C-alpha cells in the first residue's frame, strides 16, 4: 500500500528547472532510496515533500496516507509525521543533546522546562538509536556520526511515520555508516517508512527495498531492490550510460622529491598541553598521488591545515621542504605562493563565500591571476570561471549563480575549481569526493590524474578506502595524530590499513 | 568509462526568463531609486516647489556632504562585517582639534588639515587594532571610542564653542568653484534659459557626468551581453539610465542657477567615484567582500583578514576626520556637541542603501543614495516645519522598512 505518492512535481528556480514532472511512490513500511547525479533535484524534491517549499511554490500533487497534502511549512508536514533530516546537520552545537532533541518541542509546563522528564525521555530515545552519551553532553563534543544519531533521535521524539534522510552518511566513517543503516533497518521493522538519499550505492543496495532514479529533474526509473540489484544497474540509469570502471586508468612514474614534511608537531589551539600531531613525517614526489587514511578525528585534517599556513593549531614545529629547499608556509598566502594548496573538507564553512557567485569564488584564492596592478579584469574572471565550469562539469545556468543555490556536489566542484586555479605544485585534497555522484567522482579522479601527469604532487585525505586504493601510489595511515604506517598501493588493502590503525 | 559531454545538458538559458523575474531579482536597486524619486516628488509638491529651488538644492548637498563622506567609509566597515559607532564623536573631536590648532594656536590651515586627517587615521587605526588583531567585537571597541572621543572633545574645547575660522578654512565647506568659462557664455545661456544667471561650469559638469553614466552603462551592457550575464531588459536599461542622467543634469542645472559647484560637492563626487571603483573593481575591494561574506573561507584563501579589517577602520578614521573638517568649516565654529548621534544617520544610510548587518553585502552607490534619501527626508520635513520629534520617528520607520524589505526579498528568493 502506498504511503506517499508524489505526482508530476515540477519546480523552477530563476533560470533552473530543478524538477520536471517527477513521480515518487513510497510503500508503507519500506526503505526507499532516491538516487541521482549532483543537482538532479533530489534535495529539492525532499524539501517540497517536507514543506520547506510550501504548497503553491511548485506544481503537482502530493498524496500522503491517501489524502492530498498541502503543506504551508515544515511544521505542517511534521504534524503529519513527515520528518526530514537535511543534508547539512541542523543541530545547535552549543546546546546539549537533550536540548537539541527537544528544541521547539520542549517538555515543559507553563513555559518552565521539566528537566527530569526531558532527560529521561532523551535517555529512552538515545537507547533506541543505540547512542551511549549523557543527555547533558554538548553536541559540539561528539563526532559527526553521533550527531547524526542525535538527529534521528530528534526525529523519533516526534511521532514519525515517514523519515527522510538526505545523504546521512556522507560525512560518516564506514562503521558509523553501517550503524546508521542498521538502525534504519530496525526502524523499518518497527513500521517506520524511510526515504534515503545517498551517493554511496553499496549502502543503497544494503538497505533499500526500492530505488527511484532521478536525472536532470526527471524520474528515469523505479527499480525493485528486494530481488537484488547491482550497482551498475543503478549507475546506468543515473548517468544514462554504462560505466564499467570507477577509476580512470592511470600509469604513473613518480619523479623527483617534491614535498617533504619532517617531524611535524602541532598542539591544540585551545587546550594547551594537548598534542594533536606527533612527529609526523611524509613526502610526495612529482607526479605522485599519496593518500592519507585514518579514522575521523585521527588528525588528518589538522595535519593538512597546520601545514597550510598554520591554519590550525599552535606551537607548530617541524620542517617543510619543497623541491629540496625549505619553504615558508607560515601564512596561507605564503603557502599558496610557495605552491601548496589545500581543498577543505568543509565546503560551506571554510570553502565558499555562499552569498557570492561561482565566478567570485573561483578566482578568490588567486585574484592576482585575474588582475593587473590590483585592478580586476572581470572579463578574464568570467573566462576563467567558464573554463572551470566546463572542465569540472559544474551544473549551473551560469557562473553568475550564487553558490548557495548550487547542489552540494556542485558546490564541492566550485571549491575544487578555486584551488586548481592557484596552479599548485602540491595539491592537498581533504575528502574531495564527499557528497559527489559517481560520474562526477570519475571526473575528479581524472583531474587528479591529469595533475599527476603534469608532474604535480597530490595528497589525498579520504575516508573512503576504495578510493584511496584505486587512486593512490602510496598510502600513509594515520592514527591519533601520528603517521603509523606507509604502504605502497600494491601492498595495501582495506584489511591491512585497518590492522595498522587497530594495532597502534 | 568515458566522461560524456556534460555540457549538453546545461540548464536553460537565463535570458529567456521574463521581465517579472528580473524585477523581483533586482527589486532592491530599483526600489531604492524609486523611493528617492517618490520622496523628492512628494516633498516638491507639499513644499510648493521649495525643495528643488536652486538655493535649497545647494543647501541639501552641503548639509549632507559630511554624512555621505562618512557613509563611504562606513560601507567598507559594514561590508567587512563590522560596525563603527564612534564616527560621530571622532568627527566632533577632529573639528575641535582643528579649532584649537587654528584659532588658539594660530597654525596654518593646510598644516591643520594634514594633522587632522592623520589624527583621524590614527584614531581609526587604534580602534581597528583591537578589532582586527585582538578580535574584540567592533561594537564594543567603537562604543568605547564613541564615549572617549566625545569626552576628549569636551576636554579640548573646555566645554566652550571655539571659532570663528579664517576665510580660507571656511572655503572647504562653503566655497564654490569659480566658473572657468567666459562670462559671455553664461549670460547667453541665462538669456536662453530665462534665468537670472547660469554657472556654465556646473552645467557642463552635469552634462559630462551624465554622458559618463550613459557611456559606462552602455559599455557594461555590451560586456554583459558578450558574456551572457542575465541582462536587464532594454526598456529598463533605457529608463534607468535616462532617469539617472536627467537627474544629474537637473541637479547641476539647479546648482548653476545659484552659485555653481560647491567645493564639497567636488570632494564628495571624487571620493564617491574612487570608493566605488575600489570596492567594485580592485582586488582589495573584492577581498573585503570575501572577508565579510565568510571570514574563515577568506582566510583560507590567503586573504590577510586582520590587516584588511585594520585598514577598513583606519580608512574610516580618515574619512571621519575629513567629515569633521567639513562640518566645522560649515558651522564656522567647533562645538562640543558637534557630530552628536550622527553615527546613527551614517549607519542608517548604509543600511537603507542595501548593506547587510552580517557583512559581505552592500554598495557605495547604494550607501550614497541611502544618505541622500535620509537627507531629502530631513530637509523636506524641516521645510514643512515638522518637529524634530516626528522627524526622528519617520526616519526610524524608513530605516526599518528598508531592512524589512531586504529580508523579505531575501527570503522570497529562497
Ligand atoms: N534556491 C535555489 N535557487 C536556485 N537554484 C537552486 C536552488 N536550490 C537548488 N537549485 C538548483 O536546483 C537543482 C537541483 O538541486 P538539488 O539540491 O535538489 O540537487 P541534488 O540532487 O540534491 O544534488 P546533490 O547530490 O549534489 O546534493 C540544482 O541545479 C541547483 O543548482
Ligand atoms: Mg542534495
From TrEMBL, chain A:
Keywords: ATP-binding, Cell membrane, Membrane, Nucleotide-binding, Repeat, Sugar transport, Translocase, Transport. It is a peripheral membrane protein. Residues 4-241, 261-501 form the ABC transporter domain. Pfam families: ABC_tran. Signal peptide: none annotated. Its main location: membrane. The keyword Phosphoprotein does not apply. GO terms for molecular function: ATP binding; ATP hydrolysis activity. InterPro entries: AAA+_ATPase, ABC_carbohydrate_import_ATPase, ABC_transporter-like_ATP-bd, ABC_transporter-like_CS, L-arabinose_ABC_transporter, P-loop_NTPase. Transmembrane segments: none annotated. It is found in: Cell membrane. CDD domains: ABC_Carb_Monos_I (cd03216), ABC_Carb_Monos_II (cd03215). Gene3D superfamilies: P-loop containing nucleotide triphosphate hydrolases. GO terms for cellular component: plasma membrane. NCBIfam families: GguA (NF040905). Belongs to the ABC transporter superfamily. This is Multiple monosaccharide ABC transporter ATP-binding protein. It comes from Roseibium marinum. The lineage of its organism: Bacteria, Pseudomonadati, Pseudomonadota, Alphaproteobacteria, Hyphomicrobiales.
From TrEMBL, chain B:
It is found in: Cell membrane. It is a multi-pass membrane protein. The chain crosses the membrane at residues 30-47, 59-79, 85-103, 110-130, 136-157, 198-216, 237-255, 261-278, 308-329, 349-377. Signal peptide: none annotated. Keywords: Cell inner membrane, Cell membrane, Membrane, Sugar transport, Transmembrane, Transmembrane helix, Transport. GO terms for cellular component: plasma membrane. Pfam families: BPD_transp_2. GO terms for molecular function: transmembrane transporter activity. Part of the binding-protein-dependent transport system for D-xylose. Probably responsible for the translocation of the substrate across the membrane. This is Xylose transport system permease protein XylH. It comes from Roseibium marinum.
